[in-house]
What does this fold into?
Amino acid sequence: MEKILRGKAWRFGDGISTDHITPGRYYHLRGNLQALAEHTLEDADPDFARHAQPGDIVVAGKNFGQGSSREHAALVLKERGIRAILAKSFARIFFRNAVNVGLAPVLCDTDGFEKGDELEVDLEKGVVRNLTKGLERSCDPLPPLMGAILADGGLTAHIMKHGGFKWENTP
It folds into this structure.
């Protein structure tokens, strides 16, 4: 994963659950990730599933990914081409699932960010820039092991690259 991500913002509020991300009525599609991804976040914003582009960034409030531990919630966002999720807080299981599939969860103040804003996220320096509004925010850097997993493209790729899961693999 690149250290600087740039994309258009898709804005959501607080409490976006895994059922918002992957509506339960489509869960029968979980064996076809591409088909399931066609319904990503459609109940929260019907435009998202139809118009999200690779490289776009999800921006949310508090407790993004709350609810059940559906790994598919993180997987469909990655399938849609989302590179990062900026939120004030994340549900713990969603946060880990995102890292494990190679999707960057970024903790930061998202006030003032709106749908369509052009954003730049510097994962290494811990800075989020709203290029549309000229805002700059600090973000919490990920622990080195999580950064290494993201850099390798997710947990599976990390394990394959290093021949196993070892704490010593962190930079």
